[in-house]
Amino acid sequence: MRSLPAVLISGLMAFAAAGCSADSDNPAPTTPSSSTPEVIGAGPFFVEPTGPAMEQVRQWAAAGRSAEAEAVRRIATAPAAVWFANAEPGFADRARGLVAAAKAAGRIPVLVAYHVPNRDCGGYSGGGAPDAASYRAWISELAAAVRGSKAIVVLEPDAMTHVLEGCVSGAAATERYALLDEAVRQFKQDPQVRVYLDGGNPSWVKDADRVADALRRSGVARADGFSLNVANFETTKANIAYGEQISERLDGAHFVIDTSRNGNGPAPIGAGDDHWCNPPGRALGAEPTTETGHPLVDAYLWVKRPGESDGACGDGAPPAGQWWPEYALGLATN
């Protein structure tokens, strides 16, 4: 269902494909698509050198917990997106620093813009900009900070799908579509910046016609495509099938898939939020790559940082976006 982290770190891709959970529903990457955009295929994804996963590795290694340290190292050394989820002082400077470091390394950073007003409809990651004017100023500043360098931006996870499920409606829904469209325009002032407008996941809004129409209203024609499965657990196979249906209605639009935690697919649907909020028994999915073997799938990305909580939804889970070492260890060892 919902997809809601909010943390700001990424890691260096270093674990082998054999170390990832895989099954017939999560096909392994094969050969690069000839239509993979140059900006993504120009090199490996960039990673910030610090973060809670790497700190956890150091702590466990120092404590003699070498097996656990090595397991979580698979998360700490894999590239994940950097989330920009608030207007804290210096957020634009942090974005500028990120793209500058990536440019110097000859790599591509992946960013998530996640600050639309009423972004989670009162859920575990509630918040966002206080109003439309504040959001416009924020997105303009973030886009300006990224401009001038290659980057990938996943734009506003869940924002469009919340409209489709009815928790944002009326004038607020109209405003949200307009804000998403304006955000796409801001980032696409620089053609080096590739923008993927979030399109939900296969288990949420199943009507591809409705999803395609909402993406169209949100400015996907000016974007580089759409993203699927952000912070969710649906299989890669299911996301490809879902993405193909949407793409067919959008004149062949490309898409990216968040494979960070879909190695074992989704949890059985139970009561409440169990299906999407820190479900047990999940596993890491395919490592980030542009070699998807599918002409419409530009990349598998780790948009959600594995090991960060989806929300304080029971069993000792911390608030959304907070590092949870026990959950991270489960993902790395299942």
What top-tier CATH class fits best?
Alpha Beta
* Number of helices, counting only DSSP H or I runs of 4 residues or more: 10
Oligomer state of the chains in this structure? single chain
What is the N-to-C order of secondary-structure elements (H for helix, E for strand)?
Answer: HHHEHEHEHHEHEHEEH
CATH fold category name: TIM Barrel
Assign the CATH superfamily: 1, 4-beta cellobiohydrolase
Instruction: Calculate the mean pLDDT score and round it.
Output: 87
- What is the terminal-to-terminal distance? 22 Å
The percent range for strand residues is 5-15%
Give the count of structural domains. 1
As a percent range, the share of helical residues equals: 25-40%
Over all CA atoms, what is the radius of gyration?
A: 18 Å
| Uncertain segments | 1-24, 27-43
Globally, the shape reads: globular
In a nutshell, what does this entry contain?
With 334 residues, the chain is α/β, with parallel strands linked by helices. The protein has helices spanning 38-41, 52-62, 66-76, 91-105, 132-146, 159-165, 170-187, 208-217, 236-249, 325-333; strands spanning 82-84, 110-113, 151-155, 193-198, 225-228, 255-258, 297-301. A seven-stranded parallel β-sheet has the order 1-2-3-4-5-6-7.
Can you describe this structure?
With 334 residues, the chain is an alpha/beta fold. It has one domain (17-333): 1, 4-beta cellobiohydrolase (TIM Barrel). 34% of the residues lie in helices and 9% in strands. Strands 1-2-3-4-5-6-7 form a seven-stranded parallel β-sheet. α6 (159-165) packs across α8 (208-217) and α8 (208-217) crosses α9 (236-249). The protein is globular, with a radius of gyration of 18 Å. The two termini are 22 Å apart.
